[in-house]
Design a protein that fits this description.
The chain has helices at 41-49, 97-104, 110-119, 135-148, 165-181, 193-199, 217-220; strands at residues 2-12, 15-25, 30-34, 56-61, 64-68, 73-74, 82-85, 153-157, 186-190, 202-207, 210-215, 227-233, 237-244, 247-254. It is an alpha/beta fold. The strands form three sheets. A six-stranded mixed sheet has the order 7-8-9-3-10-11, sandwiched between helices. Strands 2-1-4-5-6 form a five-stranded antiparallel sheet, covered by helices on one side. A three-stranded antiparallel sheet has the order 12-13-14. It is globular, with a radius of gyration of 19 Å.
């Protein structure tokens, strides 16, 4: 379990406000912090990662204290074992795909790095540099690099926001699958309701730094229609995977209907 309690004074477009949150993340849980731009979401991720200081706070991860301002404890980023996926991917431009993944590993293991690239269908691109990758390929590399660190938590700063809608939906499903297969909790910030409904196990809504509600996605963000998740195709039928609130359903459509 991960426990987060932080406070920090911030300055927004409407003047100063205080980031003041207190929450827990369960093992393997995909938690989404949902709220408008400028409400403190990214700052919260940076504090958890150790990239920014809190005015006061306490962060405990699996029994290890990362931050305790009262006791003067504040572990540096390299000791926090955080997998951070940024909006702009933050890949090293002078390194190949494989080198980017190896760089993130605490113990350099080329065999394991190649296995991760295979899992993400990136093995054929292992010798390319980021400038020769598409946006979707860069995002996959950034995610695999984060997982290669064997992190205690995966932090996601609206990582799919720059992609086109169709690719975004495809990678949302991949992201959820990778996170579940890695057996680690994930904390993502978003202001996209459909994305949150598709990914989140739990949602925390914040506004101007304060938690205003928390609960299941369907409770906090009631959907007006079925959400498309994925599709599978056979010689005779098309199977649509849809989400109605928290329930996944399969709808089989005979291909004969399209003839």
């Amino acid at each position: 379990m991960i426990r987060v309690r932080v406070r920090k004074r911030l300055f927004g477009v409407d003047g100063p406000f205080e980031l003041d949150v207190d929450f827990c993340i369960e093992d393997r849980e995909f938690l989404v912090i949902f709220g408008p731009s400028g409400c403190g979401k990214t700052t919260l991720l940076r504090i958890i990662a150790g990239l920014e200081k809190a005015d006061s706070g306490y962060i405990e991860v699996d029994g290890t204290i990362w931050l305790d301002t009262e006791k003067g404890i504040n572990l540096p980023p390299q000791k926090r074992r955080v997998g951070f996926v940024f909006q702009d991917y933050a890949l090293f431009p002078n390194m190949t795909v494989l080198q980017n993944v190896l760089y993130a590993m605490r113990k350099k293991d080329k065999k394991r790095a190649l296995e991760l690239l295979e899992m993400a269908d990136l093995i054929s691109l292992k010798d390319r540099k980021p400038s020769h990758l598409s946006g979707g390929q860069k995002q996959r590399v950034a995610l695999i690099r984060a997982l290669a660190m064997e992190p205690k938590i995966l932090l996601l700063d609206e990582p799919l926001s720059a992609l086109d809608p169709d690719l975004r939906k495809e990678l949302q499903l991949e992201l959820k699958n990778f996170q579940q297969r890695a057996f680690i909790p994930a904390l993502m910030v978003s202001h996209d309701q459909e994305e949150t409904l598709r990914l989140a196990d739990k949602v925390i809504r914040i506004n101007r730094g304060k938690i205003v509600a928390s609960g299941s996605p369907s409770t906090l963000l009631p959907q007006k229609e079925l959400i498309y998740i994925d599709k599978k195709e056979s010689p005779t039928e098309l199977v649509l995977i849809l989400k109605d609130r928290d329930i996944l359903m399969k709808v089989k459509v005979p291909k004969s209907l399209f003839l």
